[in-house]
Design brief:
single chain, mainly beta, Jelly Rolls, 6-stranded antiparallel sheet, 5-stranded antiparallel sheet, 13 strands, 10% helix, 39% strand, globular, dTDP-4-dehydrorhamnose 3,5-epimerase activity, RmlC-like
Length: 188
């Protein structure tokens, strides 16, 4: 297994070892002791919820975060391909307003570790994609927040210029508006 650091503190790409032959493949997608050590996760940070989403080509989900119950996420694609984006939304951070994008697919088997407190979103590049992610806190519908996918301050380069969005994802505020509302990120 190889761990690749990104430009955002704690955000890491996981390239697991894949054992394949003419029958198919085998890959370990989570092993507590190994992942905790290699990702530098602290004791007590554990996964409490697994999610699975299926989306069609061009769908963009995000950029989401939870304000009071921030979730760390370990994301992987079991079918298809996505462009996964993590944005630093903490005004106190030296990388505030920066983002990283990573291609995750059923072929590359990559995973993306996103520590609590970052905004997260993805866009589907294949006909459809099944995305699974482990979360370090429970989903709380009343705590869900977001940042505009097309925020000019973030200037994310999405692969598909005209995404398919939910009404909610189309209406998230910009970072500037969040900051003007005196939104304070809860430090996990």
């Amino acid at each position: 297994m190889e761990i690749i650091d990104t430009a955002l503190t704690g955000v890491k790409i996981v390239e697991p070892q894949v054992f394949g032959d003419e029958r198919g493949f085998f890959v370990e997608t989570w092993q507590l002791a190994r992942y905790m050590r290699l990702l530098g996760l602290s004791a007590g940070l554990e996964f409490v919820q697994d999610n699975h989403s299926r989306s069609a080509k061009g769908v963009l989900r995000g950029l989401h975060f939870q304000e009071r119950c921030p979730q760390g996420k370990l994301v992987r694609v079991v079918r298809g391909e996505i462009y996964d984006v993590v944005a630093d939304i903490d005004p106190r951070s030296v990388t505030y307003g920066q983002w990283v994008g990573v291609h995750l697919s059923e072929d590359n088997h990559r995973q993306l570790w996103i520590p609590p407190g970052y905004a997260h979103g993805f866009q589907v590049l294949s006909v459809s994609a099944d995305v699974e992610y482990k979360c370090t806190d429970y989903y709380v519908p009343t705590d869900q927040c977001g940042v505009a996918w097309d925020d000019p301050q973030l200037a994310i380069t999405w692969p598909i210029a005209e995404p398919v969005l939910s009404e909610q994802d189309a209406a998230w505020p910009t970072l500037k508006k969040l900051k003007n509302q005196n939104w304070e990120r809860v430090t996990p």
